[in-house]
């Protein structure tokens, strides 16, 4: 199965997402803030990176262009999770280089569907 990085600062949501995706057979690494996520991305080759928009130290929006600037990580798919659901925010996320945007709250099965779509694209 594909290696996935989840960067989410809310412990309960981090556990829910991790459990949901591990139940589907995915291998998940976890970061609690954007800075930790970027350090992990620089060391590991993830096929999918799930980023929370609002995180301490570095937001998901700040992480995206840094990932896209890494030559050997440009292939990674990025799914942004956010409670900021305005169209202008979604546009900013997609313009920054994300592959998909998922508003919070979301159903676990919708998350699984989106993950599968991104990994099979």
From TrEMBL:
The UniProt record lists the keyword Ion transport: no
KW Zinc (keyword) present: no
Molecular functions (GO terms): DNA binding
Residues that bear 4-aspartylphosphate: 52
SMART domains: REC
GO BP terms, alphabetized: phosphorelay signal transduction system
Domain of life: Bacteria
UniProt keyword terms in alphabetical order: DNA-binding, Phosphoprotein, Transcription, Transcription regulation, Two-component regulatory system
One Pfam family hit: Response_reg
Coiled coil stretches, renumbered: none
Domain Response regulatory per the UniProt entry, residue ranges: 3-119
PANTHER family reported in the protein's UniProt record: RESPONSE REGULATORY DOMAIN-CONTAINING PROTEIN, STRESS RESPONSE REGULATOR PROTEIN 1
Name the record gives this protein: Response regulator
Organism lineage: Bacteria, Bacillati, Bacillota, Bacilli, Bacillales
